Fold each of these.
Amino acid sequence: MLQITDVKKNFGPVEVLRGVSFGLDAGECVALVGDNGAGKSTLMKIITGVYTASSGEVTLADRSITGTAPGEIRELGIEMIYQSLELASQQDVTANIFLGREPTRKIMGFQTGVIDFKSARAQAEEMIEQLGARLPSVDIQVGNLSGGQQQSVAIARALTFSPKVVIMDEPTAALAVREIQHVLDLIKELKSRGIAVILISHRLTDVFEVADRIVALRQGVVIADERTEDTTMQDVVAHIVGAH
Amino acid sequence: MTTANSASAGASTKKTVVIRNKGALRIESLIVLALLVVVMSFASPFFFTLPNIFNVILATSTIGILALGATFVIGSAGIDLSVGSLLAFAGVVGAFSVAALGLPWWVAIFAALAAGTFAGWINGLVITYGHVPAFVVTLGMMGVARGVALLITDGQAIYGLPEPLIWLGQGRPFGIPVPAIVFLVMAVVLHLLLSYTRFGRHTLIIGDNERGARAMGVPVRSLRIKIYMLSGLMAGLAGLLTTARVNAGDPTAGMTFELSAITAAIIGGTNLFGGRATILGTVIGALIMGVLQNGLNLLAIPSFWQEISIGVVLVAAVWLDQFAKRQKE
Amino acid sequence: MRNFKNTAALAALFVAGATAVSAQDDGLLYGAILKTPANPHWNAMTQGIEDAAASADGVEVVVSTVANEGAAEQQLNNCETMLLREPDALIVGAINSNILLPCLQRASEQGIDIVDLDYNLDREIAEGAGVDVTFTAGNDGHDTGAVGAEFVAEQLGENPSGPVLVIEGLPGNPVGASRGEGFRQRLAEIAPDLEVTTLNGDWDRGKSANIANDILQRNPNLQAVFAANDTMALGATEALLAAGRDDIVVVGVDGSSDAIESIRSGRMTATVAQFPYLVGHRAVELLNQINMEGAELDSYQSTGQSVITQEALEEGTDEMIQYLR
């Protein structure tokens, strides 16, 4: 489904990624682990098109998406849920779910930039209901919601347009225990629907519960790529800190 | 998940008409305007008459049109300090094209609007591709545009425009001054643009969270450039109308108008740090300033008081807003 | 200490250099410290000064200007720099009554003549600060206002009554205030039944248009408008015409080119022309008389003003018209 081949990235003289390769299949969850500064978020930003790789290639279903703009990459079916959520706090839930993809209306047969508020609102409600998220209303400003509720909005935004790949950056880091299980259940459900998931997490218990494979990144290279059942938590920790 | 998957059922049955962006309209400013109107009506018998109401809108139109552009700019967490100078620059370009170059009157209209839009485009390009803060770029443009206006005219106002152009500033179809009509029409158009289109929605979103907007595929750069072009276009329009109104392209026109435009937008509830703005609020903000000026003129009160009262209203409006917010929390 | 020595040496060098320059020719050097050339009034004044200097033998003028009407500090810097040139006289169009006093006081100590243009220096304040003004060239604002009042009264016929609007400049500006005051005083003497309202147009065209509109709401029987300069008078003129009122007498002050055009085409009624070109020209001529012939002059030198109407322009009989710029 998604294949990363020998991706390198340097910011000036600093080489952050030094040739990273791995892939994932439909319905597979790959956990990406590594210490701070290992290059995880840079790699993700290259996949989502926010950064461009210095060299190497990213393909989605055998089609190269290297150097494609973030909006187009979303259109192709890659969504990312950022740790910082990247919501617009003064906009309502509906506006955030459709951020960048507002449905528009045809007026007298012409496609316009006029937002179709009715259909957006209805779809947003449907999505929130499907997720079982606890929100007072889709008309509420996102800034007035709790952290968990805001994350539901970010998740709803990633899932509304039937993605093929979903990247989650530390989705459980800021959540209460009950909410964590909810997210892990969601990842399992995505897998069962054939969606590929990249999970970036420091919480190895979460990783071992949902991931099929674990890719460890250290100093810009992949130092381990193993099936979850073939490894142990101690091994993974060793990969991360480099004590092997 | 008992009480809660509530966004659905209940909400969709209520309210058929939804006012877009209603949360952003600051009700305090409307109250202040209403109070002012009542006070002025008692203070002067000439205030609450139809001709004087048109008169207030006419006097508000210049700052008001600039403030419409400022609403988009500030809503996107930008700032445009060049609009006062662009007003003079565009007005001079318009007057110059007819008075000195002898071009037909309608060319002057395009020339003035194009001059403002072009300068806005330069602002946008330098801000987005040059990575220079908007404050600095538009501060620079403020000086450049004023200087070029003075250069074109050699410091002298270009006096004397053809009749059709003068009509743009002085005509009164059905007793309503043309600049007032233009202001109100532009307010409606830009209200629709801000509250009902992707362009307007994205304007507020990049003002709220630019990084997030970029990650979600909003074309932030081209959007910003368009926003500064819109601001420049409004400055061009305001310049055209003032020039027509006083029958002269005056290179010294519009000094400090950029601050008045920003003031109107802020009184009207635009978040100075971006993300929240309404055109209706800005129109109310501009009218508050216009009513104050008109009323104090009618009462022949010296202009120190206009400055003082506008300053007080500005701070009071934002203070009320913060106060209301803290009450909510 | 060492630093101080260096600075002193540098200053000495500067002075030496400056002396060397003026020692080269034995002529007269006048330093003109003016306002912004963006203002047509000062532009014309500068031309007058330069033309007068060019037509006299052995007279050199160095002109310094500032960026805008409010650049008071910049003007003080210009004045200080000018003193380094050791001029024989300073021709000063001060931005306000106070800012140049420290510099002018040193000039007085060095025996440099000081010419005040357009009554921008308050004599009382200046003398209190030890500044000796040789003479003032230009027209007293009170006289200008009075001339305006006489013209307005004459236009309105026998025993006029009704409202009259006076538009002054920026609040606190003495030129606008004295013109307004002179107008009101004279009008009260010759046409006591006119009721005068005064507002500040801040020297701004658009603002004055708004004021004219607003006052027309309050006083539909408005008789006349007197504005402290042409820019404001023109703003009021256009606003009144837009309201369909071509019957109201509008008088400005200055004689700027756009005002003349407006008067010629029958829009604005008249202007009390100040002939800034003549003010500059006269200032230099009078300085030459003092320095070359040792003349003793009155300390107020009126340069003349004249009411310019459409009629006057068409007939061209007023010989002052040639000095319009």
Amino acid sequence: MTTISSASAAFTGEDPGNRLFGPVPDVTGDRGYADDHPARVGFFTDTSVCIGCKACEVACKEWNLLPMDDAEGTVDALGLTGASYDNTGMLGANSWRHVAFVEQSRAVDLPMPTVGLPGAAGGQRPLEDPPVVHPQVPASATTAEQSAPLQTSSGDREIRWLMSSDVCKHCTHAACLDVCPTGSLFRTEFGTVVVQEDICNGCGYCVPACPYGVIDQRQDDGRVFKCTLCYDRLTDGLQPACASACPTESIQFGDLDALQARADERLAALQAKGVEGARLYGRDETDGVGGAGAFFLLLDEPEVYGLPPDPVVTTRDLPAMWKSVGAGAAMVLGLVASAFVGRRR
Amino acid sequence: MAEAHPVGFQWVMEAKARGATVIHVDPRFTRTSALADLHVPLRAGSDIAFLGGLINYVLQHELEFREYVAAYTNAAAILREDFQDTEDLDGLFSGYDPEQGKYDETTWQYEGVEVTAAAGQRQSPKPGASGASVGAESGQDSDAEEHEQGASEQSGSGGIPVGGKPRRDETLQHPRCVFQVLKRHYARYTPEMVHEVCGIEPQLFLKVAEALTSNSGRERTSAFVYSVGWTHHTVGVQYIRAASVLQALLGNMGRPGGGILALRGHASIQGSTDIPTLYNILPGYIPMPHAREDASFDDFIAEAAGSVGYWGNMKKYAVSLLKAWWGDAAQPENDFCFGYLPRLTGDHSSYQTVAQQIQGTVPGYFLVGENPAVGHANAKMARLGLANLEWLVVRDLQLIESATFWESGPEIETGELTTEGIGTEVFFLPAAAHVEKDGSFTNTQRLLQWHSQAVEPPGDCRSDLWFYFHLGRLIREKLAGSTDPRDRPILDLTWDYPTHGPLAEPSAHGVLREISGTGPDGTAVDGYTALKDDGSTSCGCWIYSGVFADEVNQANRKKPHLEQDLVAAEWGWAWPMNRRILYNRASADPDGKPWSERKKYVYWDEDAGRWSGPDVPDFQATKRPDHVPPEGAEAEDALGGTDPFIMQGDGKAWLFVPAGLADGPMPTHYEPAESPVPNPLYSRQANPSRKELRGAWNRANPAMSDAFPFVVTTYRLTEHHTAGGMSRTLEYLAELQPEFFCEVSPQLAAERGLEHLGWATLVSTRSAIEARVLVTERMRPLRVAGREVHQIGLPYHWGKNGITTGDSANDLLGVVMDPNVHIQESKVATCDIRPGRRPRGPELVEFVEGYRRRAGVASGRLGPNGRAPIEERS
């Protein structure tokens, strides 16, 4: 049975330490690890250099011994989805990395992006006038967000093919962990969120709690599974399998602080090149999950990649809920008490 | 490249991060296009028009690197008066014999230079006559997926044996100098013509031209990267030649950041060309001797003996090779056992051999890591060949279709073959994977990288080294005591490799040491310059000589790049002599000074009196830049100080190939053998000297046939590997691309009623196959020659076995080949496509036969057990 301490932020409604919502500078220490705990680690997935090779998916399955499954998560099944080259479908109990393939096009012939010759001193010739703004083009996700380095022309249609490797976000405020009644889900000394399969009782509370739809029950098993950020490899001083396998360093593993700094630099560099659609996702510590341990550089709106635009930890509203519950309970108690009082009189 | 070489593509991404502009030229919008700065879609099979357009752009706008071109190419050489161009003869060069479909190259020669290779002997060029240079930059060893490649009956590599220096006009103004001939040849390859042929808008073409030319010259260099998209054509060698001409004009050869990089189809295909699995070359591109012309060792090495450049040393390399193989038995008195070498009697290339198999004249066959029943063009023809052997040995990691064709091949279903009727005895011998054995990979950069065994192979799996060593050992034991002279070549072999471990695995280190070579005292040589022609040295492959220098496995060096300079010379070992960039003398100007500080690489150090720089100079180290060779000098000593292309007889990069190519001295646009449109440039539709194989098992779709109106191109997906034996059999890869599909544009889907995720049947004169449909805007119709041309994409990984199964794309393709290297045109063919699944069983045969009739093509009906005769050229 879930017990709520009388000191719980959820119960008291007081959350000065941001234990349910908001930035947490030391999420690991906050969970009671000693001061010399390792730095919080994470993934920075730079989708602007993802080539969609799916090496991350294969490396993950190899290392974690996950079963083959189809896009619906059915074990030992295969199936063509027709969703571009994505036959994984989504993150689930059997797929802890998922590479999304997004084909975009628009029916205009934009001027080609200037083929830059960075660093060319003498002899540099501009290839084209500066890009022309076409006012008639609707500013959809595929227009205003077009990134110059990724723009490609095939005449009358402009094509862009976005690829992005998704993974568990290892949230600062992990609702899955907060709602787990068995303690199967826990915060590791690396600041990551891991489910212990030998403790999980298959209650499934965590599944609707995840604002990203990441954690998932295995159909024939009942227990939940998700990315552990290769906890077993981390404890042996190795980096996660997916990051090791990524050929283009689209998936970068490291201390979260360093990754955040690198991501900020990369974003600035892309923006300086005029890649207006570029943005970081999960980097902001004031967002709905207090920032993610696995965050992304995207080239378009999160929805385009199948990511929620504004995820919020589902336990954020617990104080309010408990407050309402408390008020209701008080009212009931009051009514009951008054009834007794009335009878005595 | 991102699709098929994702690991190598990391360096493209790194270059891009450093500011490089990445341009992707491909009929399809692929994962590579997605990461490129610019995608240039073109019609499959039109690349020479595109590259020719770039050459013309360079020449018309005088954007060539003039000093480089004048000094280091054959631009100044003057040609004979009787040479005639395709512009003069409407698509033919002078010397064409329509009866034979072959060229006599006499008129392509330099004026006044006597050419050693006799006219009419084109099919047996000696080293020095193949027209290609050794190495990854050459077209000669251009890719062969799964060893499909053949070559002219004999071919080594290197420059033509030039019997004297050609007359030159250093001003490049003489009307018959190569430069002017080239200019005239490409004058009609305008942006408008490129548009007409390739479907590339002139605006887009000009962007590429300007990006390329402004990024080439003293301060900057550009590189071309290609793979089988360029080689799998009836003009494949000429594709590479076109890039060579362009890169030579722009001064992008022998310099850092330049070059033409051939991405190979497998992890060590480069290695299996260097130490060949090809029928027509010996290790190190030494030609295989011919039965009639090479009766004696002297005959064999005669042509090379007098030639200029390093091929002038062929006798040293050949003698050392024979010593490596036959040791003490190889003595000067017996021509070092030259007589033991097998001889060529004709074209024994892969597809020719398959045709012979169908005739029942090939008794036995080894398939090693190759799955022709899925992976060869016209896979049905390959299966018919296998069905007509006496025995077949298949060594593979998995039970592939080439080992099971007799029970579950598509022809069993159609009734064209029956299991009872097939007499082939199949031996399947499982192979060890690379982590289960020691060995080296040679990559596209000629870099040898050693890998060590991690685990013992499971069950009966054995390494190739184990298999061949013990097979040889057993054969030798059986032959022991034989007095039959024909057994001597096997009994005299040096077959004494040390073995180790529970499986008696031969020492791969020992083999590498033998390849690297040993000197008179039995210790490892430092390199090929130490090799002798008197039998005192031994070397299994002269270009690999030095990989075991100092008795150290140099391929096993793994010093991190952070602890070295940018050349990283102590990571692995690159042939030859650990040179990382070939012809790097060209990175300095004729005086030996760097062309620019930015592109400084190898240069002449006057104080030290030698060439210097971060790489090993690809030049005699102390030969001065102003060196003029004395009269009568031979081999490399006959090259001057400004002759960087040391494997060529004249030391120059060739803008024009005066000898050694079967289909012309300059690349010329011909339509693919199967094309829906006429050739806009010449009335010659396709390469006039392309190589055909005719029979009921290999019908050709007529050009511009209404029955086959669409272009089809085949390719690989990142998720699978070639014919699928290593990926369709694995759960984690099969689930990622779980079904055979075809990619079509929305326009074609609408035109033919194809539904996304529905079924389509694709038909050619070979067969009909079915695939799921992916409708995508990444496929795009092109406007070519005034009409809309649709292109269909087909990944070729699927077959009957494994976790994910499907029809084989290669069943659709025919075999028609490049005349130089006998590689098939599998990157472009024609077909029809219609919605729905294909007919089953005997109905399939009738269905395809109906198409043949409509297209006016001869019947494809086969005789008993799939046999049908080879038909002569009509």
